[in-house]
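Lab notebook, bench 4. Continuing the backlog of folding jobs that were queued last week. Each job is logged with the same field layout so the records can be merged later without manual cleanup. Today's entry covers Biopterin transporter putative (BT1), a 680-residue chain. Filled in by technician R.K.

JOB TYPE: sequence-to-structure
TARGET: Biopterin transporter putative (BT1)
LENGTH: 680
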Amino acid sequence: MANPQPEKTSDSGEFGSKEHSKERATDDASVDSRPEDIHPGTWKLFKACPILQDIPVLGLVLKAYSPHLVIAVFVERLCVKGVAHGFMRLSVQPMLTNRYGLSGAPYQRLSSLYELGWSVNSFFTAIADTFALFGYTKRWYSLFCAIGCGVFALLYALLPAKESSAKAAAGFMFLTALFLANVDTFAQAIYSRRIRVSPERGPALVSWGWGAAKLGAMIAAAVQGPLSDHNVTQVGVYIVAGILFSLSFLFIFNVFDEKPNRVARLQDARADYIIKKREEREAQQLEEHAKKPTAPKEPAFTEGREASLAPYVLKNEEEDDLEGFVEPEVDSVLWGVIEINKEVVTRNWLIIIYCCLNTAAVVATAVVTILGTRWDMMWACVAMTIAVCGFGFFMLPLIVAKAGTFIYLFNIFYLQLPGVLNTFYVAKPKCLPDGPHFNFTFYNLMNGIIGNVCSIIGISIFAHCCQNLSYRAIMGSSAIIIPLISMFDLIIVERWNMYIGIPDHAMYIFGDAIIFELVDMLVRMPTFLLMSRVAPRGSEAMVLALLGGIAHLGKSTSSAIGYLLLETIWPIKTKGNCDYHNAPWLVIAGHIGAPLLILPLAFLLLPSSRVSATLDENGDEVEEVKVSRSDDDTSEGSSIFRTSSHSSHSSHSSSHSSSHSSSHVSAGDPFVGRREHNAM
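JOB STATUS: finished
OUTPUT FIELD FOLLOWS
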């Protein structure tokens, strides 16, 4: 009698031992017990360390997104927008005034080039969205920009320490900012696709990213201040170069898990096709209902409030929606090195043209800033405003144009005055005997530490308290807060605090340089969230870069306007025997009076929707209905969203009224389709 064949061990995986079967049964039971609102990749992490669920912001983010993505977002934002951007931003004043010997007005003029550098990235993202490099639209471009940023940072820091090097240094500063902005924008575009899938946790993920950025900014402030006081400001720039070179490994190993270009294009095409089919079916149902109002026909698609009762759409219904679907063709050249996304160009050609015009305007402004006269700068500001606010309404989706115009004007109406306030606070006793006499260590620490603590407070407020508020309410409130906190700067400049016995150091903590960081966060995060939800699919990087570029362009234009005021109406003197008697008028005009115009702009240009709501391409709130997906764990899911304002029907009436309904599809996090079945 033949001996019985022994069971395969669990290592083989072919038959499995009894122990292996028990383990699998236990794992299945554990997975089945997972709450549907927790990401499957996070469930085991929460079981091993339950306290993570109770950590503010982090707990919310981990519930909706994979730990892999959460860590990648933290590292990128910490290093790029936090540490690297912090070192560069805090190095501008000591590098231009101390190392290269510029006075107040020329410093204000050339310092605007750093903000201009953050305004050009929309052109590069348009190139990236159109021409995928080695199969990816963001990954390898990010690597190239990280290396380029490190190279130009070194050139910026290694120039001879004399005034004749100032303009060349400003040019390298511009290029460093340009490549740094591209790295940050490409990374944001990757995870913005995930926000579309889990919009209810979108504010938490945005808050998580900004929290990491602010932590990095505090680290940079703690280091850069002492370096500047010891006249070795360039060391901070060397650190920036090292960070960017090291960060390149983040993209070499694809830590963000960016999907290949062909996969992303297929998902977007499927989503567009499903929307089209369901709109056609809904229109047909409405037409049939109009002809037979008493027919007790059950609609195939759950509408209106009933949509919230439908946990999922059956998989065979999704397959019916995809009947006749043809996969999009992606052309490639140079033996597959470059893939051309024609549908991105044909669908968003006006946005691409706008990005090119915006880039040309920024480059022209940069040249004028370095080589032109004050009047050349004035006309450049006028042309820039017309280009951003005028052409935007002809070339961009309406909601994107409105948001971009608001952000641009918001930054203009809060006038940038670094040549006045920055030089006033750090002026030496020989220059300004009765001044505050801050050193760079205190000045940078207060701006970097307390200012970023206020930013983190703003982040927490936004993540936990603002989800049911509208974009108008959150961003319009800045028109009231900014003038109030700017009064503290006016008090210090007028020296009134000395008459009542309050030291400059104590009064400065309550000024707008500190508290404004909180307000700034309450404007930036809703804007990013808004664009993440309404950006055309496949063009997230382009739209996000465009809006971010417009924000920095507004700051640069604001700084140029401040320079013109310094040169013409309210001049000051920052060298020798300093003269700041016009500084109060600049503060009153730029920080108290002009920001009041932000409030009507918010109600005119921003949607009235809640920040936690899912939006369609017009900025209207829509309800979400899940669409099942295949069992492929590596593919991203998709969701169909429809407006809650549908036509009302009556079984006793021969007529019907309907309101316009719109649809929105998003693709992103890979666990969306599993929530409906509680399979994990």
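OBSERVATION: Confidence is low (pLDDT under 50) at residues 1-32, 296-316, 625-680.
SIGNED: R.K.
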